[in-house]
Amino acid sequence: MAILLVCLMVTADASDVAKKGKKSRKVIKRTDEKEPVEQKDIQDAIDVLLDDESALKDNVCAKKHCGAGKECRVNEQGEAECGCIASCPEEKDPRRMICSNQNETWTSDCELYRMRCLCKTGSEECTDSKYDHAHVDYFGSCKDVPQCTADEMADFPRRMRDWLFNVMRDMADRHDLSPHFLQMEREAEKDLSRKWANAAIWKFCDLDGHPHDRKVSRHELFPIRAPLVALEHCIQPFLDSCDVDNDHFITLKEWGTCLELSEDEIEDKCDGVRDEAENAI
């Protein structure tokens, strides 16, 4: 509408000048006569409208959460709604590849979850209904994962404890830990008897997302499982063994036992993390 008004103003000004030219050879320019609107001015008006439309989408979609494979759009009523991602960025880096639960390699997780969305919504772009329940199994291209032997499984808890502490220490050195976790890491550096326990508690609290229910679901284990499957073929059977009662959740006690830590070494310190996060808001 704003662009139409600009164009009408240009036409009206040009017509007014033409009429005045017919009445007299000498045209006296009025001081209040508007200068002709140039192409740059019209483009500026278009840019403003586009910026306003983008800002509207950002504001309306700010509190709208769309799941994997979806993006927020503003409908004709000005309301936020979720729809399948129109297109994913072209990925050429092989490190972005993922292996799905159907043992298929995809160029990115975006492509996989976009296809899942298309299939769930009955889109003609859906190539196979099996993708209704597709998800990322692990990062990297699909490969034959060898069986975890009994000897490897017996040694895996020790290797897992070391790995957790090394990750925690590296994050502390990069200043990527919250003050609460940083204090736990520094304590472990000074008192090696707390080395493995503090690392185990840190990772458990870190994995226990929403809701903070003192147990970690199979879904919440994804950040620790997916990056390791291709490198550590014992990670999946190890995590399965942690869920002793097979209820699809791992409690802090089960986590400590699985890592071969004594019960008195595992102390629930997750409340400190929650309080710290709430105070930071």
Describe this structure in words.
The chain has 281 residues and is mainly alpha-helical. It has 2 domains: 70-139, Wheat Germ Agglutinin (Isolectin 2), domain 1 (2-Layer Sandwich), CATH 3.30.60.30; 150-280, Orthogonal Bundle (Recoverin, domain 1), CATH 1.10.238.10. It is built from 10 helices and 7 strands. The radius of gyration is 30 Å and the shape is globular.
Could you say how many structural domains there are in total? 2
| Radius of gyration from CA coordinates | 30 Å
Helicity level, as a percent range? 40-55%
- CATH superfamily label of the largest domain: EF-hand
Supply the CATH architecture of the largest domain.
Answer: Orthogonal Bundle
Average pLDDT confidence is: 81
